[in-house]
Structure formats: structure tokens, C-alpha cells
Amino acid sequence: MKTAILGGGLSGLALARLLHERGDEVVVLEAEEQYGGLCRSRTENGFTFDIGGSHIIFSRDKEVLMFMRRMIEGNEQQNDRNTKIFYKGRFVKYPFENGLFDLPAEDRFFCISEFVKNLIAVEKGEVPAPENFHEWICYTFGKGIAECYMVPYNEKIWKYPTEQMSLHWVDGRIPRPPVDDVIKAAVGIPTEGYTHQAVFSYPLDGGIEALVRAIAKPVEPFIRTNFRITEIRKSGGQWQIGNGAETIKADRIISTIPVQHLLAALSDVPEEVKAACDALTYNSLVCVNIGVKGSVPNYSWLYIPDPALGKTNRISFPSQYSRHVAPQGHSAILAEITHQPGDAVAHMSDAELVREVTGTLAAMGLATPENITYTSVVRQPYAYVVYDIRYQENIAKVREYCTAAGIPLVGRFSQFEYLNMDGCLRSVLDFVRQYPA
Ligand SMILES: Cc1cc2nc3c(=O)[nH]c(=O)nc-3n(C[C@H](O)[C@H](O)[C@H](O)COP(=O)(O)OP(=O)(O)OC[C@H]3O[C@@H](n4cnc5c(N)ncnc54)[C@H](O)[C@@H]3O)c2cc1C
After folding, report:
1. Is the pTM for the entire model greater than 0.90?
2. Residues 48-58 pLDDT 10s
3. Total structural domains in the chain?
4. Strand locations in 251-317 (E)
5. To test ligand 1's pocket by mutation, which of 59, 215, 421, 426 has the most ligand atoms within 8 angstroms of CB?
6. Best mutation site among 157, 415, 420 for ligand 1 pocket (most ligand atoms within 8 Å of CB)
7. N or C: which end of the chain has fewer CB within 10 A?
8. Is residue 318 within 6 Å of ligand 1 at its C-beta?
9. Which of 128, 158, 193 is the last residue of a domain?
10. 11: Cβ below 6 Å to ligand 1?
């Protein structure tokens, strides 16, 4: 019984490994020249950058975290998170609610008084239950934290009005601090939020790709790269998967590729399902990689909610995660700009994007043009699932169709869920446990 795994990102590779380990015959079909998907890294001029945006290894899920750390054993650097939000020229501790003391006094007062007033109103039942993401933010944090950080940052990363986003996904994804912690933070007693990420791991060598390489090692002979799936058919009980030049046959398939690519390769998809799939919203990503001479501030990464500071939503400092990702005497900076497919950012040239980011870095006092020794730009068409208000209705139609067609969906853009690496690996482990041999 041969299983074809569509897509060779983290999910596809982990599936292949676990199925192979239990004796199944597998083949992984990957469109790109190099497997790894969003977890690929590139080394140039002595700098290693993650090309799907800055990645770190962390999880609440102990089994998955142990698996990831075992994979990079002997090649791991553990780090304490030191993340800030750049707010009115200040570096405010992350999460924002734990950093209120770092705010200018008026803003601190605005945030804490609105937080408390809102809490009382909610307790008294005066605030209706939230029905969209924007309402959830105000209901949970009050108007102050919402206006100063939560709304501007979320609109910058999602490129979507928060009023038009669903709220079904926020629990567990967005830190929700105890009331005491917010009050302590406002009066200057240090508190930590999002604690399962307070310590994180990163490969010493090879960037995040070292993790997927370690996972893929036992199944490398079964990975076909440069195989972009364009056609999937079932005939006589067998699947035929084609790339326009060649057809691979398999008894079963598991898809980890974006649902948009999967449905495009299938014939006879009902119009209603196609329309639901087309309506699913996602963001693309531009990564601008910068190498600088000298050091950078001792931060892990920075969130930049202020639209006046340009298009960059997050800046990371990978040379703080691993001392091996930049040449001696140099540091690495990775700027992320999310955007909607086909929008103005998608049409910016690499040179324009580098100028955009170096302008932001200079305005923030993080790097000057004279210190920059290396730049490159990488684009990812599929980066973030956006949970718009009709998401659940649309994804349900797509999933129902795929289930009926006998195509299991595993992975970030296949399940079309905001899954981090740990979420993908959890899906893989759970899937393999119930997948008949
Ligand atoms: C900016 C950013 C930062 C992130 N940071 C973190 C982090 O710090 N920690 C964390 O845990 N997670 C992080 N993640 C999430 C993590 O990247 C994903 O959870 C994970 O990489 C998803 O793996 P996947 O295999 O499901 O999908 P993908 O990596 O998207 O893999 C899908 C694969 O399918 C291939 N494919 C697509 N179409 C076809 C086709 N037609 N034929 C054949 N192959 C095809 C693609 O080339 C790709 O290799 C981050 C994501 C982003 C965007």
C-alpha cells in the first residue's frame, strides 16, 4: 500500500517519516527545488536567514516540543525571549499588557483605567458578548490597550479590518493575562505573559531548516522535489498524480499543499466548493534580510504597530537566536511585511522593499545605511491564514468535499488553519495514530 504525500514542508516530511518508521511505503511530492516549505533557510555571505519569516521552536504541547528538540539535539541554542513592542519611540515589554509601565504616563493611565472600567462593565453584564475580533479585543482588554496596540498591530499584520474577522481562533493564540498581572504591570511590578514561549530554542547551525532536515533524513530517498502537482485523478481504485510531464501512482494520498492548489488539480469540483475555496483569505509575506556590521540591540524580535513607521510589522534579530547565523563582528536583522496577494507590496521591486525597510530601521535607530553589508528579499505567497467572518462556513464546504473525495488534509494551508510548527506536528501525530496501516 503506497501513500503519496502532497507537499514537502514540515507537515509532509513529518508525515513521511512517521509512516515510514511504521513500515508504510511513502513518496513525497514537492513543487520546489528544495523541500521544507515555510521552514526553509538560506545561507549567503555568511548570514543564515529563515526564508518563511523568523521561526523559533516553542510549544505548550510537551510531546511535540520534545520531538522538535530531540530532532535538533546537539545543534540547539536555548534563548530567553526578550521581545518588545516599538511604541512612540519606546521599547515596551511584550505582551503589551505586561509592558504597561513602559508606556508614557498618560497612555499607561488610559490603558489601565479603560481596562478596569471595561472589566466592571463586563462583570455587570453591560457589554454584549463579542461577535467579531474587534469586539473581542475591546471586550477583553478595554478601549485603551485596544487603541494603543491591539487594533493597530492586528490590522497591520492581517491587512484586514478587525471588525470583519472571526473570533473563533483567539483563545490560546492571543495572550489573555490575569487581571492582577495587568494591574501589577501598570504599577511597575514585573510580570511575564505568554510564558510557554518565554524560553525558546533555535538550531545553532542551518537556521530553522535544520529542524526539517533532521526530520526528513530517514525519508530523503522518497522525496521528489521539482514536482509541482497540477493534476490528481482517481481511476480503478488508484490515485494518479501528475505534474504535466510525469504521473505518479499511489493507493492513498494525503494533502499538505494549500487547498487552493489541491482543488485546482482536481477535476469535477462543484462550483459551490470552488467558490468557497476562492473566498478563503490569506496573506503573503515579504522577508527583507539585512546583514549589518557590529551589534544590534539585545532583543529577540520587535513588533511595530505604528503605520507611520512604514510597512514592516515585525523585525527579528536571528543572530540573537544563534551565534552562528552571522559572520564574526556582524549581526542579522529580518524584517517581515505581510500583504495581500497581488496588492501594491506584491508589485514593489526588491530594491524598493530594501529601501522601505532600511528607512524603518534608520527611523527606529536600529541600523544606518553605512553599517549594512548584505541585503536580500524573499517572498512567500502563502504565509498567514486570515480568519475572516465567513471563514468557518467556507472551510467547512471545502473540507466536506475533500473528506468525501477521500483526501485527508494535514498542515497549515491544507487544513487552512493558523497552525505553528507545533500545531502542524500535533496534526501529523494525531493523523498517523488513526491512519490504518
Ligand atoms: C512569518 C512566519 C513566522 C512563523 N514563525 C513560526 C515560529 O516562530 N514558530 C513556529 O512554530 N511556527 C512558525 N510559523 C509557522 C510555520 O512556518 C508553519 O506552521 C509550518 O512551516 C507549516 O508547514 P506545512 O508543511 O504545513 O506548510 P508549508 O511549509 O507551506 O508546506 C507546504 C509545501 O507544499 C508545497 N506545495 C505547494 N503547492 C504544491 C504543488 N502544487 N505541488 C507540490 N508541492 C506543492 C510547498 O512548496 C511547500 O513546500 C511561522 C510562519 C510564518 C509565515
Report:
1. yes
2. 999 999 999 99
3. 2
4. 252-255, 281-293, 301-303, 314-316
5. 421
6. 420
7. C
8. no
9. 193
10. yes
